[in-house]
Predict the 3D structure of the following.
Amino acid sequence: MASPENLNLNERAFALVNQIAGSLSEEHGAGAITPSVYDSAWVSMVEKEVDGKKRWLFPESFRYILDRQALDGSWESYASETDGIVNTLAALLSLMKHRAAPHSSDGSLPSDIESRISTATVAIQKMLQAWNVKASNLCAFEVIVPAHLELLAEYGIHFEFDGKAQLMQVFQDKISRLDSDQLSGQKASTITYSLEAFLQLNFNGIRHHTALGSMYASPSSTAAYLIRTSEWDEEAERYLRRAIDTGSGKGDGSVPNVFPTTFEMLWVGFRFAIRWRRLCL
């Protein structure tokens, strides 16, 4: 007979399974890994025209970005210094876009926006200068970082650092091997996961690559698609809304870098299977 301790554990296990099952959506599935500053920053930059006026579609995502800025002006790193660089670049870009479009902010622009931009600019300059480009292994960093440097340059923010020439060489090598025209066809491409890094794409010709509103289950890529396509995609908007509402942040404006994902459900099931096996021995 199971002990009271194990009965309590069983009850907790069933409660967890019920919680996971309750988060399932027939349309978008479920799954919410750790929130991503980078993806949340891109979601915060989506605007939509309503009644003839442009408005930020997800102001809660911008608030999330504001709340996550560190005292030194940067945004957090996770497993590597490159994480902090791409997070801070994307978040700084969001600050610049919001400052440039106060008509869309409805009072959400913070009074200290200038000091936030200033400290973020200083922080990313230090991070870039200390960055070992050769040692970086973040997926698609060689296209993501140059794209953000170019986008920030449009706002008059320029960065020079020791590894820039090496980065741009890696970028050119990568771009020379990519065929962005493949997106006009029906075959899926990994380019779809990082559309925000490909500034010259024809975003009006890639809608057929969406799946239940998402571009390769990537909130940042889906946000970039919505920002740059001339024909609004309601399904993509719904996808981003669900990523915010059912992600681990539960509506705080954050999104993960992949949504949905079954990793957590599989991991919980795996750990339960091991536990039950031990109890039955």
Observations:
- The chain has a mean pLDDT of 85.
- The chain is about 50% helix and 5% strand.
- The first helix runs from residue 4 to 22.
- The CA atoms of residues 241 and 249 lie 12 Å apart.
